[in-house]
Amino acid sequence: MRDLVRQFLRHGVVGSVAFLVDFSVMVLLHETLGMDPLVASIISFTISVIVSYWGSMKWVFARRDDMSRRKEFAIYMVLSFIGLVLNSICMWIGQQLLLMRGIDWAHSNLYMVVKVLATFIVTFYNFFSRRRWLDAGNPNAPGSSDQMW
User: Fold this and answer.
1) Containing H/E element for 121?
2) Fewer CB atoms < 10 Å away: N or C end of the chain?
3) Burial of 106 (0-12, 13-18, 19+ CB in 10 A)
4) Rounded to an integer, what distance in angstroms lies between the CA atom of residue 8 and that of residue 121?
5) Distance between CA 146 and CA 144 in Å, rounded?
6) What is residue 35's DSSP assignment?
C-alpha cells in the first residue's frame, strides 16, 4: 500500500506539471485567440499528454520488458484519448450546468474552475489505467522505489 501511495504521489507531481501546461495553453487559447473553452481544452489536453508521457514513463511507471516503446506509446495514447474524452465530457457537463443557470462560461472565469474539477476526476482514471496497462509492477520500478522519497 505504501508503494502505491508513493507511486500515486509521483504521478501527482508529473500530473501537476502536465496540468500547468494544459491549463496555461487552454487559457492562452481562450483569452488571446478567443477560442471556445471546450475546444481550447481539447487542444491543451492533447499538448499536455506529451509532458505527461515523458514524466510518467521516466519517473512514475517502470517499463515493461515485454513491451516495445512503440507499443507502450500506442497504449499510452489510447489511454490518453480516453482521458481526453472524459475531460471533454466533464467540461461539457460543466458548461451545460452553467448555461442552465444563465451563466456564459466563456465570458467568465468559471471555465477555469470546471477545468480544475475535470482534471481532478481524470487524474484518477489516468493513474489507475496507466498502472494497469503500462507499469511492470517491478519492486524496483521508479514509482515504487525509494530513489526520490
Assistant:
1) helix 110-134
2) N
3) middle
4) 14
5) 7
6) -
Alpha helices in 34-109 (DSSP H): 37-55, 69-100
Q: Which of 18, 35, 55, 37 is nearest to 94 (CA)?
A: 37
Distance, in Å, from the CA atom of 7 to the CA atom of 149, rounded to the nearest integer, reads: 10
What span, in angstroms and rounded, lies between the C-alpha atoms of 137 and 120?
Answer: 25
Residue bearing the bigger pLDDT, 29 or 3: 29
The 10s digit of each residue's pLDDT in 65-123 is 888 989 999 999 999 999 999 999 999 999 999 999 999 887 889 999 999 999 999 99
What's the pTM?
Answer: 0.79
List the grid coordinates of 110. 468559471
> Burial letters for 41-66: b for 16+ Cβ neighbours within 10 Å, e otherwise?
bbebbebbbebbbebbbebbbbbbee
